[in-house]
Amino acid sequence: MAVDTTTDTAAAKPPRAAWPVEFYRSQLGKKIVMAVTGIIGFGFILGHLVGNLKLYLGAEHINEYGEWLRDVGEPALPHTALLWIARTVLVGAIVLHVHAAYALTRINHTARPTKYADRDYIAANYASRTMRWGGVIILLFIAWHLADLTWGTANPDFHRGEVYSNIIASFERPAVAALYIVANLALGLHLFHGLWSMFQTLGWSHDRFDPWRRNFALAFAFVVTVGNVSFPIAVLTGAVS
Fold first, then answer.
1. What is the b/e burial string over 151-185, where b = at least 16 CB atoms within 10 angstroms of the residue's CB?
2. Helix or strand run (H / E) with residue 151
3. pLDDT value at position 50?
């Protein structure tokens, strides 16, 4: 006598999640999420650099810029509302970026449980091989940066709204300046490899355009790194005081 297992099979099969969740569960979905959140990060980093360059125009300009970030969106939105929306989007992008990177690493380790006995370090460039640790360094640096120049808990001479003097007080400490320089060098490597990978993930890769793609990633990482590193050096050397 045949047994009807249709009901049992249907009951055992878990219900499908919403399409965005199902998409993110796939390896391709995680890669695309990393690329999209990376674009958000690249945009923020470039905008952050452009704003910070006002340091070279003097205290009035960069302090006014810092206050403008709180006022932008008024009167359509409440004071600082747009700033907090941007912060929320950025934090969400960071969380998704980190989780997708971790999940993809686990998938790769599962697919290749044993390490290569003889790895080709010539073929694997330095930025690619240090991507994981660079990401950890950047996350730790973000926490320090917020404590130092946003919350002020790590800055002994912090005054709310005085962006210029806060930067001077922070970078006058050689150890802190060195920390910023090292962290931004790690950020530069991360940006270079991240941009290169992003183009490939989104399908913007072709033998004809790969040299352009590499040059763009290199130029973006170089500009951001030089710009960010210039701030602590300018303070240490007295060019900005």
1. ebebbeebeeebbbebbbbbbebeebbebbbebbe
2. none
3. 96
